């Protein structure tokens, strides 16, 4: 059980720590909204990682093989979603910057915590490479179908906890960023930086 716990933690941090488009969007979302919304969004990402870890431990080679034929269309779908988010973030930032003197009624409402959770869950699930990553770790470590279900459960839970802890750290950083950059110029700049990073990463996904 200890080996499964350590393996799950290592796997969870291994997939979560590299800062990509989802992490960038999580930080930007928290900076624009609230820590509560960011926490829910972070848990959405961690839930997707946990689900993929579960699928990998249960399905193993069969799941990884089944996903390979659809990796390309799903990668394109993920890239399109990220491009849409980048464009929306930039346009919204410009509109808020130009209309700062208008009534607050004209500003679009921020996403609710539940919507943030579901959005980040869906975005992360569009990355099927995650399940291939977990399947490779599980199979490479010799943890196939012969592993006790309890060890599989520990592995999945540890992967979820590791991912959640890192995503919550990013959300906390986004909350601090939001408090530090309270001015309109600062928020406009950070929105453009976030949109730019997401655009670059989305283009790289299709390369």
From TrEMBL:
Subcellular locations according to the entry: Cell membrane
Bilayer-crossing regions: 6-27, 39-64, 76-95, 116-142, 154-176, 188-206
Record's keyword terms, sorted: Cell membrane, Membrane, Transmembrane, Transmembrane helix
Domain of life: Bacteria
Pfam family, one: LysE
Membrane topology of this protein: Multi-pass membrane protein
Residues of the signal peptide: none
Main location: membrane
Protein name per the record: LysE family transporter
Species this protein is from: Streptomyces sp. 900129855
């Amino acid at each position: 059980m200890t080996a499964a716990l350590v393996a799950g933690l290592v796997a969870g941090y291994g997939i979560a720590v590299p800062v990509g488009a989802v992490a960038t969007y999580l930080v930007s979302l928290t900076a624009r909204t609230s820590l509560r919304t960011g926490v829910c969004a972070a848990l959405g990402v961690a839930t997707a990682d946990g689900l993929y870890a579960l699928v990998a431990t249960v399905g193993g080679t069969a799941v990884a093989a089944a996903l390979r034929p659809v990796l390309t269309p799903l990668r394109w779908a993920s890239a399109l979603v990220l491009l849409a988010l980048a464009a929306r973030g930039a346009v919204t930032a410009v509109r808020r910057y130009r209309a700062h003197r208008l009534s607050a009624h004209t500003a679009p409402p921020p996403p609710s915590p539940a919507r943030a959770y579901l959005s980040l869950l869906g975005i992360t699930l569009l990355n099927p490479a995650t399940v291939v990553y977990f399947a490779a770790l599980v199979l490479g470590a010799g943890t196939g179908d012969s592993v006790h279900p309890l060890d599989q459960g520990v592995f999945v839970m540890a992967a979820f906890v590791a991912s959640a802890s890192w995503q919550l750290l990013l959300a906390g950083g986004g909350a601090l960023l939001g408090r530090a950059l309270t001015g309109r110029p600062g928020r406009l700049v950070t929105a453009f930086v976030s949109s730019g990073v997401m655009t670059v990463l989305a283009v790289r996904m299709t390369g």
